């Protein structure tokens, strides 16, 4: 019997007028299930319910909210293998990575269970005698959350958990290609003691559900992770309404390899950052910038390492790289590979589709030698496609690293303390990795970038309070 995934609105499961298939990118002949297509009326109902429920939720004690979030986190951790298998089937991430993501989602809820008990405030002396000043943080209200498909458990967790911890209510729209993971998360939340209406899941397309969330008058703040084009449209819509907004919109992240680097370590960082999770990470190392004295040796080792990677089904035990997540993404990746060829970039390895048995979206990891002005060096591909280019020296490498409209993260492989210190200070990014893959961050510290990658307050860690709360200053005559 085909599993059907419904929306969750005002404490009840709601089917749509129609259902759409939920594809399994590892095996197109065995779909995960079907999901209900919500419409604008469903969003209106969810937003209205969230508005009504938020005031009482904000009035609960921090301990009540902490206990609920802790229960959610504990169940996710207890079921990480089951949830990891679902994630692997639906998104195509290989099982070890999928289980790791499920565990991370659980850890995020547990972290924000603690943060619910640590909501910051200040008491200050006034410049006027006989006056006390108290600065407190209050929930912003109803938060609309629009999440992407590439981390279908972790990214919703790091948006939903702080929203609930600080006393907000939520209307959550997942990417329509990963409804099963969103449904599983919502089902856990629905049994954890969250009052009806405080958390709402609305499954559907961005053009219908996403737009309705942005337009709903009950929405006080919007947190979005996705493409630059969509983010920019949302920013304009939010500005017109005076809506508080937080945007994470991708990256074209550099990994600099200096001549003094441990080359084996540098290759491991590049392989992990560029190709694991099928390269479908906004923090992926899509531009490899290598100092000339070790350029040829680095490329040779990269080619050898890439040849050893096995592309296969997400649940297969020997898979290194799973399928591309969807037909749309698969065609985008292939189109960029053709663009690279047409531009004159030199294909060093990969670029071909792979037949692994089951029908799926299988693509070799791909490496081009490219110029900085090639489109494949400039535009975010969001797949297992990376470019490598030589740098004359450290200053040239840093210039190439910063020559992008994005600024999410950047990495450097070096044994030089001088270069490490300078790169950490002068890389125009929000996150710097030294002798580590650019992809891979901790859930208890700030996440976000600069330039075209991010807009608004940072996500994760205690910095989440900047978006999910509003500051109030109260003056009292003694």
Percent helix, as a range, is: 25-40%
User: What is the top-level CATH class of the largest domain?
Assistant: Alpha Beta
- Mean pLDDT equals 97
| Overall CATH architecture of the largest domain | 3-Layer(aba) Sandwich
Q: What composes the largest sheet?
A: 7 strands, mixed
Low-pLDDT segments: none
Shape, principal axes of CA atoms? globular
Instruction: Say which CATH homologous superfamily of the largest domain is assigned.
Output: Aldehyde Dehydrogenase, Chain A, domain 1
Tally of individual domains: 2
Helix and strand composition category:
alpha/beta
Radius of gyration, whole Å:
23 Å
How far the N terminus sits from the C terminus, by CA atoms, comes to 69 Å
Question: β content, as a range?
Answer: 15-25%
Total helical elements: 15
Spatial strand order of the main sheet = 15-16-17-14-13-18-19
Number of strands: 21
At the fold tier of CATH, the topology name of the largest domain is Aldehyde Dehydrogenase, Chain A, domain 1
Describe this structure in words.
The chain has 478 residues and is an alpha/beta fold. It contains 15 helices and 21 strands. The protein has helices at residues 40-58, 62-78, 80-91, 95-115, 154-165, 179-190, 206-215, 228-241, 263-275, 295-307, 327-343, 375-378, 394-402, 417-426, 465-468, and strands at 4-5, 7-9, 12-14, 19-22, 33-36, 122-125, 131-139, 142-146, 169-173, 199-201, 221-225, 244-248, 253-257, 285-291, 346-349, 366-369, 385-391, 409-413, 431-434, 454-455, 469-477. The chain starts with a strand and ends with a strand. The model has no long low-confidence stretch (mean pLDDT 97).
């Amino acid at each position: 019997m085909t599993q059907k995934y419904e929306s969750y609105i005002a404490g009840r499961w709601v089917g749509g007028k129609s259902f759409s298939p939920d594809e399994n990118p590892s095996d197109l002949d065995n779909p995960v299930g079907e999901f209900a297509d919500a419409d604008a009326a469903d969003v209106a109902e969810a937003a209205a319910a969230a508005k009504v429920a938020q005031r009482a939720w904000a009035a609960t004690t921090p301990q009540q909210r902490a206990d609920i979030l802790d229960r959610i986190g504990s169940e996710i951790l207890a079921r990480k293998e089951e949830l990891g298998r679902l994630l692997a089937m639906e998104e195509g991430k290989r099982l070890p990575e999928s289980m790791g993501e499920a565990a991370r989602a659980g850890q995020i809820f547990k972290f924000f269970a603690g943060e619910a008990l640590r909501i910051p405030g200040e008491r200050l002396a006034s410049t006027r005698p006989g006056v006390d000043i108290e600065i407190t943080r209050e929930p912003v209200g109803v938060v609309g959350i629009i999440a992407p498909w590439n981390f279908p458990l972790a990214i919703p967790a790091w948006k939903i958990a702080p929203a609930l911890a600080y006393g907000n209510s939520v209307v959550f729209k997942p990417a329509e290609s990963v409804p099963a993971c969103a449904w599983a998360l919502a089902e856990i939340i629905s049994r954890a003691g969250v009052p009806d209406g405080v958390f709402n899941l609305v499954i559907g397309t961005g053009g219908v559900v996403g737009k309705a969330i942005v337009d709903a008058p009950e929405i006080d703040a919007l947190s979005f992770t996705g493409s630059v084009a969509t983010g920019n449209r949302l920013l304009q819509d939010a500005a017109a309404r005076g809506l508080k907004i937080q945007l994470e919109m991708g990256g074209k992240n550099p990994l600099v390899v200096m001549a003094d680097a441990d080359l084996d370590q540098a290759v491991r960082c590049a392989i992990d950052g560029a190709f694991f999770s099928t390269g479908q990470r906004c923090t992926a190392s899509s531009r490899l910038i290598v100092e000339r004295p070790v350029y040829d040796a680095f490329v040779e080792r990269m080619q050898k390492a890439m040849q050893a990677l096995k592309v296969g089904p997400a649940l297969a035990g020997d898979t290194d790289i799973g399928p591309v997540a969807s037909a749309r993404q698969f065609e985008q990746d292939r189109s960029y590979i053709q663009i690279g060829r047409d531009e004159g970039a030199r294909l060093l390895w990969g670029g071909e589709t792979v037949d692994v048995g089951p029908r799926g979206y299988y693509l070799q990891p791909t490496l081009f030698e490219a110029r900085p002005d090639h489109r494949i060096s400039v535009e975010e591909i969001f797949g297992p496609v990376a470019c490598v280019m030589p740098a004359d020296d450290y200053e040239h490498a840093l210039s190439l690293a910063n020559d992008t409209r994005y600024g999410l993260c950047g990495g450097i492989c070096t044994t030089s303390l001088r270069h490490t210190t300078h790169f950490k200070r002068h890389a125009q990014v929000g996150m710097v990795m030294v002798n580590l893959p650019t992809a891979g961050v901790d859930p208890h510290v700030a996440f976000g970038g600069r330039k075209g990658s991010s807009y608004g307050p940072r996500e994760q860690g205690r910095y989440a309070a900047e978006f999910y709360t509003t500051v109030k200053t109260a003056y009292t005559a003694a």
